[in-house]
Structure formats: structure tokens, C-alpha cells
Amino acid sequence: MTLWGRILAGTVLLGVAACGSAVPAEPPACGKPKTPEVRGLWQCGPTLDFTPINSYEGEFAGVQGTEDAVVMIDGRCTGTLIEASAGPVVVTAGHCVGLGDRALLVFNFEDAPDGDPLVTEGTVIEQALEPDYALIELDVLPAVTPVLLTTRASERLAIIQHPRGRPKVIAEGRFLNSCNQLVYYSDLDTLVGSSGAGVLNREGHLLGIHTDGDCDETGRGANRGWTAEVIVEASPYLRSEDIAER
Predict the structure, then answer these.
(1) Which residue from 62, 74, 192, 236 could staple onto 10, CB 3.0 to 4.6 Å apart?
(2) What is the CATH classification number for the domain harbouring 64?
(3) Closest by Cα among 101, 124, 39, 115 to 70
(4) Distance (Å, rounded) from C-alpha 211 to C-alpha 229?
(5) Full-model pTM
(6) Which CA distances in Å does 179 have to 176, 209, 225, 228, 243?
(7) Within a 10 A sphere around the Cβ of 46, how many other Cβ atoms?
(8) Within 10 Å of residue 43's Cβ, how many Cβ atoms?
(9) Domain ranges, residue 160
(10) How far apart are CA 6 and CA 18, in angstroms?
(11) DSSP string across 26-40
């Protein structure tokens, strides 16, 4: 199968399956997560608020310098190239890939792209489900600036993502809480395909990675992801000094 055929196949799969878990609408954060199950995902809030990244002019305009590091993985997940002492790697959700997998990664897959798409492959060098993360070492590093890791949240958060394998979009919402190694956020839309996307603070630094879309059919509830701090603690590759902002 060709490289673009693999992308298309992954995108088709997004229409029939999604990973997530349900949490109660009240309280929206820090409850005990239920066992993940396969189900359809819904937006958080009354409307689905995605903006194509190159059309975005909202309050997170500063993250435009971050978006080049966001990548689509196998047509079915999202990842982010992050800075690390041992060399830049792509971080994504552990349920997106398996250890040792060869993943197909596409940078700059966007509406009105500001550069040529870069298609490369990489090897999954770390993978876990608790915390739910994976690291991918790329065959070819793109000419983009890796994103810095942080433990500092801001009142508003943003996620740059490839929902359902579509061109890159941004969504923003409210930071709720960070506890039990997870970060929670509301009215911040994600869909299947958004798994593994970076949860960004106002400075465009990566606070966590999105792993679970937990809003119900009415849009009530909260989404969540694992914090960058717990991922660094779990990773043999990453080091404490890779968290640039605490």
C-alpha cells in the first residue's frame, strides 16, 4: 500500500470507531475515571467549535508558532514534536500505536497550507497506557521548532488537532483542574482522531496530551489528558530538565 493509501485507510477507520470513556457531567473533573470503552465522541459545549489553523485569529494567536510541530499519525491520531535533551521526538497517545510500530507521519496537512506537506516515518520507541502516551523517533526531522513542555496551566487552553483525520484545526476551552496525573478541560472540542494532540497553555507550551473525549451527547462534561509531568516521570527517554516551564 502506498503512503497516501495508508493515510486514507486510517482516515476511513475513524468513521467507525473511537476510544473514550464517560465521566459524570457533575462534577466535571477529578472523579475516578471509568474503564475506557469504544464509542462515538461528541463535542464539549453547545456547538462544535473547530477553526482551520491558518484561519484562526482568536486569543491563542500566539500558538501559530507552535502549529507547525503538530502532525497527523497514520491518518487516525494527532501528535506533537517536542523538545527533549536526547533529541526531538513526537509525543502522542499510547492507545494510538504499539511499541516498535513503524508510524506514518504527515506534517503541514492543512487548509491553505503555509508550506509543503512533509511525509515521513518513525519508530515507536516508548508506549504505555497508564500514563497513556507514546514517543516516536522520526526518520526525518522537519524544519520546524519543537514545542516545549510545561507544568503551568492557564485559565484557557487550546488543542491543535486532526479530528477524524481531517486538516489541522484548533479548538479552545476552559481549564478545569489538574489532579491524579490528569488535566481536565471543558468546552474544548475534540473528536476521534484528536487523541494524542497536545494540550497547550497560552504560551503555546505543552501541558499534557489529550487522550479521552468525555462529554456526553448534550455536550456536558469534560475532556481530559495525561500531564506532561507524569509522562516525563514515566519515560526513560525524557528527563526532568525537558520540562522548560514549571
Answers:
(1) 74
(2) 2.40.10.120
(3) 115
(4) 15
(5) 0.85
(6) 10, 14, 11, 13, 18
(7) 10
(8) 21
(9) 3-245
(10) 18
(11) SS-SSSPPPPPEE--
Q: What is the pLDDT along the chain (246 residues), one digit of tens a residue?
A: 555 555 545 544 443 333 334 433 444 567 665 544 434 455 676 777 899 998 888 888 777 789 999 999 999 999 999 999 999 999 999 999 999 999 999 999 999 887 788 999 999 999 999 999 999 999 999 999 999 999 999 999 999 999 999 999 999 999 999 988 999 998 888 888 899 999 999 999 999 999 987 776 666 778 899 999 999 999 999 999 999 987
Task: Provide the domain count of the chain.
Answer: 1
Strands 77-82 and 70-73: antiparallel
Query: Are 168 and 67 spatial neighbours (Cβ–Cβ below 8 Å)?
Result: yes
The C-alpha cell at 239 is 528527563
Residue 67, C-alpha cell as written in the block: 502549529
CA 140/CA 162 separation, integer angstroms: 21
CA separation for the pair 150, 67 (Å, rounded): 17
DSSP string, the chain: --HHHHHHHHHHHTTT--EE----SSS-SSSPPPPPEE-----SSSS---EEGGG--STTGGGGGTGGGEEEETTTEEEEEE--TT--EEEE-GGG--TT-EEEEEE---SS-SS--EEEEEEEEEEEETTEEEEEEESS--SSPPBPEES---SEEEEEE-GGGPSPEEEEEEEEEEETTEEEEES----TT-TT-EEE-TTS-EEEEEEE--B-TTS-B-EEEEEHHHHHHH-SS--GGGEEE-
